[in-house]
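Task: encode each sequence below as structure tokens.

Item 1
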Amino acid sequence: MNGRRILVTGPTGFVGRGLLDRLTREGWLIRAAVRSADRAALLPTDVEAAVVGPIGPLTDWRPVLSGIDVVVHLAARAHVMNDPAGDPLAAYREVNAAGTECLAHAAVDAGIERFVFMSSVKVNGEGAARPYTETDPPDPADAYGLTKLEAETALAGAAREAGMAMVVLRPPLVYGPGVKANFLNLLRAVDRGLPLPLASVDNRRSLIYLGNLVDVIMTCLVHEKAAGKTYLVSDGEDVSTAELIRKMAAALGRPARLWPVPPILLKAAGRLTGRSASIDRLLGSNTVDASGIRSDLDWRPPHDMADGLEETARWFKGL
């Protein structure tokens, strides 16, 4: 048994569920912070639930952090397309920035040894001509990325003043069993054999399989050299949208029905239909240079993209 006590926020989310499974298998004693009793009911029986209510600047973390050694902070207001909130920036800031700052200071007061924070490549920006690196100046393009940057800054300040070891992870799009949103929609389209007008898309995008991201978290929980670092992480296999669809089709055992349409026409169609943001994500490039974590921690993705997509396809077929 590991015997160390860990607090995980966001435990019922996509990444959280994968992390709990791995932590349980490796013998960690897990306390999971959830918003409500309904969420607590979704947790495995061997995970201790702690109901904290909505996460924000006034969340009382003191009883939740009692007896805890390390924290993994996954909870966030998720990035959504066409956000319906009246003031999206304020809504993101409440949870992502102020909520993280509140937890960071509480963790310092509780004597937490290490704090692993799940940030996002969106802190770096969108659509750079070359892969992002950790030394690039942040350039968030939306409220989600901006408030993740604000959270990183607040956490770094709290950790620096108290000497708490912190690690910040910036993943790109995460896929795997349980994936939602655009990736799931693309899986459905490929599985149904729908013709997709994306054969001419020659972009590059970084992704990370859920199992690889969980492995990164586990490594950063214990590796001495991870303390104080920010890491961009990925599968290490950048693909175009057309290549991704072909790989999805292979994993699903379906033909990839791609036909060529000039990207400029797809962009025009996006503007006419009010779906410019979704189209831009399919057409644009967004890559990361993950050599930093490989160099510092000797970390290598335990799963390649083909394996990750096969596991995702297996889950999808069981829906």
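Item 2
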Amino acid sequence: MKGYILSPAARGDLDAIWNYTAEKWGIDQAVRYIFDMRDACQALASGGLKKGRSADNIRAGYRKFSVGSHFIFYRISADRHVEVIRILHQRMDVQSHFDNEN
């Protein structure tokens, strides 16, 4: 793999995760959790982790990988990048977040 790319929605998800975690559990925990998310994205891109599970029920070709209490939704692009589409809490109505796109 060549690396990973965060979609604008995934960047917004990380911002929201940061804000919530920092407010609820403090800045140190927010830093650790965001680093865990970014480390997982990098590991997916480098092939260091299994490729997650199929999320074809969301969109064809999508996969998901669990990190903490969140799922990283991604796909592999034609040029072999990991495209991180969304990062959503496991308790969220995931389908509704994807139904509102496009």
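Check on item 2: The radius of gyration is 13 Å. The first strand starts at residue 4 and ends at 6.
End of task.
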